[in-house]
Structures are given as C-alpha cells and as structure tokens.
C-alpha cells in the first residue's frame, strides 16, 4: 500500500528495503542489521507478493552482502528473476564505523563488497543506486559504475529519537564534501539526518548539489494511504522547484520552459536553430505558448533580425487578405484607389510570425509558398518585384494530420514550413513543469508584495487538467493573487477551478477458500482494505500468517477485518 501510494504521489522510483518492513512492525531502522531473517530472500518475497505486480515505476531491491556464503552473481540473479529494475546496497556498511566496520571489511563483507555488487548489477544492465557517506565511498561507487548516488546522513531523526544536533547548513556541507569530483551527469540524492519535512528537504537542495530526496521513514510512518500520497507529492514538488527550476534566462520568456524532458528538448532546439534562416512550424493546443515560443526564437536572433511582425491569419479578411499581406498598386481596388505597401514589404530583416497559418485560404497559401521560396514581394496589380529577407515562423493549434487530410493546409506549404517542426505539449502532459512555472509567474505578477504558494496549493494545481494550458494557469494565479488576503496561496484559494473527477478504486473480489492463491491482480490495491484483503487471499485466510506477512499483530489484523467487513465466504 505504501509503494502504490508513493507512486501515486509522483515518486520517480522505489527502493524496497528490509528497514521499511521492520519499521511497519514497530522496530527502529537500525534493526535492519540484525540477523532476523535472510534479508535478500525476505525483500525479494515482499517485492514479488506486494509491490512489483502493482507498481509501474522502477523498483530497486535493497541487497545485503553480509552473508559470506552468498555469491554476488546469485544475488543479482534473484533481482532479475523477481522482476526488480535494479539494485541498491542496503543494509550498507557505510553507516557502520569503528571496530565493527573494520571487522566487516577484513571478513570481506563490508563496503568494498557492496561496490562489487553494484559493479555486477551495472555490468548486467540494471539500474543502480549506491548509498555513501563520504567522498572516498562515493568515488569508489562511481568507479564501480553506480548510476545514482545517495548521500546518507544517518538514520532519520524522529519525535521518538534524540533530537539532531546537525544543522541544515552543516548537512549541505557534508553532502558537497561527499560529492566532490563526482561527475555532474550522475544523479545525486540525500537521505536521513535532520530532513523530516519537504521544507527541510528543499532547504538542503537549495544549499547543496543534490537533485532530490529519498524519503524513507518520513513517509512510511504515516498510517493512511492519503497521507502517504500527499507527503510523496510534497517531496516530489520541492525537488522539481529546486533542481529543475526555471533558469534566469527563461524568467523573461513568458514562462515557456520548464524541467520536463520535452521542454528541455525544445529549449535545446531553440538555442541551436534560433539564429538560422530556416522556416519553423510550431504546433500545440490553444494556450500552450506557441506565440511566446516564437517570440523567444526571435529574441534569440535579435542580432540578426531587427524586429518581429505578427500576422493574425484568423483576422485577415478573405476579400482583402492578399492586399494586406502583399500590398496594392494604384487603382488595383478600383479607379482612384491608392497604392500601399503590404505587411511583407516592410518585413526585410525581420521575423514574420503567421499565427494560425491554416486560416489562410488556398490562394493566399499559394502566394505565401512562393514568397517563402523566393523572398520576392509583388504588390497586387503591379509588376515590380521587391526582394525581402525575413525569417518565417508559423503556428497552428490543430493537428497537422487533420489539416492535411481536410485540405485546410496545403501539402507543399506544410513541407516548406516544417524544415523545423516544434510541438509544444499540453500542460496536462507536462505537469512536472507546473511548480517551476508557477514560481516564475508569481515572481512576475506585478504585485507589490510577492505571493508564495503552499504545498497544498501546488497539489491542487498539479491535479487540475488545465484545458486552457499556460494561459489558464497564468490567469488562475493572477486571480488567486488578487483575491487572497494571505501572502501564501493555499489549495482553498483555487476553489474556482473545476474539481477533478476521481474514480473510486475498484474492489477486488475475494476468492473462495480452497482455491490456489493468485499472485497477479488486474487492479492495484490502493486502499488499506484492499491491501489486507489481498494478503488474506494469498494466505487462504490464515490470520496468523497474514499478520506476519503484513508486519502487524494478529490483534490488529482482527480489528482491521472487523472494521472493513472482510470475511471469508
């Protein structure tokens, strides 16, 4: 249940560790080092029965190397056979010091063996995350091929443990020392120590080079799945705001970019092609930022193009659109009609944006195609040719395939425009950008006192579908900032947004006693009731075995069965 809720909250990957199950049983995280059960077999069994068949995101198995009789190849075989996506070194000797650490190393079951495990897994193509506590360990894991590093500051402090005397600033210094000379391309995380809230995690990310936080006991101590979802979302949001925040350059680009992979790709395209001569076609739904992106392309080429001219194709008259674009000679529109220059005649050394290009009629599209090919403008009713050197950018909100099939857009014009085609995804498909975009918009909203937004406010924004895309988000934030008496925007202030429809979880019917338990289920168990019901099914309603598997007492299990009305037929 914890894993499914964390995935729902936006976790990028999951670590399945024996410490998590022990905490569910009421024990401290330190008990993960005790020889209570063969750790790797236990974790693999939990993964197979409770996690791997319910989660779509990668799940990494916490593998122990403390058994001197275990073979590293066999450990990775277990990972592979059970369907885990990768490996992490846990329980790790990195958190043990003094004489015990020395004994482990001399016996060949210490940190050096963990490095060998990471190398074995990496060589076989598995994802790898390595726990480290200092720079020497970090560099060893880098040499072993670790794909990710997590600096562990010690077991997380809680209300039941002694208060931490380590500060956020000291923690950041420890992290940066540990990650010195670690290649930038290796993702880095932090876990433990004084980090017990999303806000403290954000403070650490602000002060160090880590890109995210691995939330273990701070999440699974929460008893309800809704709380887990919300905490996971909060950690995910603060990670996005910090490590993937909008750059200083993009703060003046009408909030185009964000941290999502697609928008990073678009940003790279703009950087590379902005100053070139080729036409560009920008597609995307209404409000997604097509015009803003075109303006950003022009800004990047201001040393080449002196100005930008926007042509609203929807606003061009069908009867006089050609004259508006290409101009008209004396008497063309009737005896005595004056001559005038068109929009394109004045476009030399400029960027010309054709907004909603498919709104042009077929005749205008033909003339525009000739202009793009030759750069020549000839006024309507005239013979004089004027050479114009300009950059053409076109946008459309309709799918290209639909426009071509319906004949609204000429094939030859499309093929001329799409020398570079950029498709901006809808905001719903780039929800990872919302925190950073929101932060940028609130910074530039013109209020005398800048507004901030709470985690609950971010959750509300990220759960909304945004049919109006960036435009709707900007308007929603402007409205919220105007009506809010507080300097912090909470979820309640966005009550004017339509509520998101949530489907109720589908209850999994209990199978008959005596039937073979089924290891796979078509629907994930996302409530406590379903979690308990599935465990009862697997154990054929034997309460003692079910309680043992779930890590709860038999008395607690009976209480839950009574509460949810789960009875065998």
Task: Give an overview of the whole structure.
The structure is a single chain. The chain is of the alpha/beta class and 569 residues long. The protein has 4 domains: 2-243, TIM Barrel (Alpha-Beta Barrel), CATH 3.20.20.70; 261-423, Rossmann fold, CATH 3.40.50; 428-494, Helicase, Ruva Protein, domain 3 (Orthogonal Bundle); 505-569, Arc Repressor Mutant, subunit A. It is built from 23 helices and 18 strands. The strands form 5 sheets. Strands 1-2-3-4-5-6-7 form a 7-stranded parallel β-sheet. The protein has a 5-stranded parallel β-sheet with strand order 9-12-15-8-16, covered by helices on one side. Strand 13 and strand 14 (385-387) form a beta hairpin. The longest helix has 19 residues, at 225-243. The two termini are 24 Å apart.
In the CATH scheme, what's the topology name of the largest domain?
TIM Barrel
For the report, how would you describe the main beta sheet?
Answer: 7 strands, parallel
Number of strands: 18
Mean pLDDT: 80
> For the record, what is the CATH homologous superfamily label of the largest domain?
Aldolase class I
Highest-level CATH class of the largest domain: Alpha Beta
Counting helices, strands and paired strands, the structural category is: alpha/beta
- What portion of residues is helical? 40-55%
Tally of alpha and pi helices: 23
Give the CA-CA distance, first to last residue: 24 Å
Q: Any key phrases for this structure?
A:
569 residues, alpha/beta, TIM Barrel, Rossmann fold, Helicase, Ruva Protein, domain 3, 4 domains, 7-stranded parallel β-sheet, 5-stranded parallel β-sheet, elongated
């Amino acid at each position: 249940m914890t894993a499914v809720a964390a995935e729902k909250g936006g976790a990028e990957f999951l670590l399945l560790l024996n410490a998590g199950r022990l905490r569910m049983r009421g024990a401290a995280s330190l008990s993960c080092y005790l020889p209570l059960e063969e750790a790797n077999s236990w974790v693999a069994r939990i993964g197979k029965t409770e996690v791997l068949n319910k989660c779509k995101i990668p799940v990494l198995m916490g593998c122990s190397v403390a058994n001197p009789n275990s073979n590293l190849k066999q450990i990775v075989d277990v990972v592979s056979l059970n369907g885990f996506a990768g490996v992490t070194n846990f329980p790790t000797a990195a958190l043990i010091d003094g004489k015990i650490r020395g004994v482990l190393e001399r016996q060949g079951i210490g940190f050096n063996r963990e490095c060998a495990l990471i190398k074995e897994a990496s060589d076989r193509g598995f994802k790898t995350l390595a726990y480290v506590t200092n720079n020497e360990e970090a560099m060893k894991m880098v040499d072993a091929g670790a794909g990710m590093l997590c600096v562990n500051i010690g077991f997380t402090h809680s209300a039941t443990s002694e208060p931490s005397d380590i500060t956020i600033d000291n923690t950041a210094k420890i992290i940066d020392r540990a990650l010195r000379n670690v290649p930038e391309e290796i993702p880095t995380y932090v876990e433990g120590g004084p980090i017990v809230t999303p806000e403290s995690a954000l403070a650490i990310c602000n002060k160090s080079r880590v890109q995210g936080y691995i939330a273990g006991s701070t999440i699974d101590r929460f008893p309800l799945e809704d709380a887990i979802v919300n905490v996971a979302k909060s950690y995910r949001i603060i990670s996005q705001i910090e490590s993937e925040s909008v750059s200083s350059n993009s703060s003046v680009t009408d909030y185009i970019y964000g941290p999502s992979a697609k928008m990073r790709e678009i940003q790279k395209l703009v950087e590379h092609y902005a100053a070139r001569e080729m036409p560009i076609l920008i597609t995307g739904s209404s409000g997604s930022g097509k015009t803003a992106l075109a303006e950003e392309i022009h800004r990047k080429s201001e040393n080449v193009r002196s100005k930008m001219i926007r042509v609203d194709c929807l606003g061009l008259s069908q009867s006089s659109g050609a004259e508006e674009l290409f101009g008209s000679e004396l008497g063309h529109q009737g005896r005595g009609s004056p001559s005038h220059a068109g929009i394109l005649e004045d476009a030399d050394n400029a960027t010309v944006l054709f907004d909603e290009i498919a709104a042009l009629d077929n005749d205008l599209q033909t003339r525009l195609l000739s202009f793009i090919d030759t750069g020549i403008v000839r006024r309507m009713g005239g013979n004089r040719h004027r050479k114009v050197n300009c950059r053409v950018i076109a946008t459309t909100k309709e799918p290209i395939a639909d426009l071509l099939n319906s004949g609204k857009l000429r094939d030859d014009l499309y093929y001329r425009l799409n020398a570079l085609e950029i498709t901006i995804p809808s905001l719903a498909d780039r929800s990872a950008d919302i925190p950073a975009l929101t932060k940028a918009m609130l910074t530039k909203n013109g209020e005398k006192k800048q507004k901030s937004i709470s985690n609950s406010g971010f959750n509300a924004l990220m759960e909304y579908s945004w049919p109006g895309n960036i435009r709707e988000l900007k308007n929603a934030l402007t409205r919220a900032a105007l009506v809010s008496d507080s300097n912090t925007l909470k979820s309640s202030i966005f009550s004017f947004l339509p509520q998101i429809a949530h489907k109720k979880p589908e209850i999994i019917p209990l199978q008959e006693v005596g039937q073979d338990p089924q290891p796979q289920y078509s629907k994930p168990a996302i409530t406590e009731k379903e979690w308990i019901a599935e465990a009862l099914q697997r154990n054929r309603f034997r309460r003692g075995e079910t309680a043992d598997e779930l890590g709860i007492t038999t008395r607690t299990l009976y209480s839950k069965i009574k509460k949810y009305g789960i009875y065998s037929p």
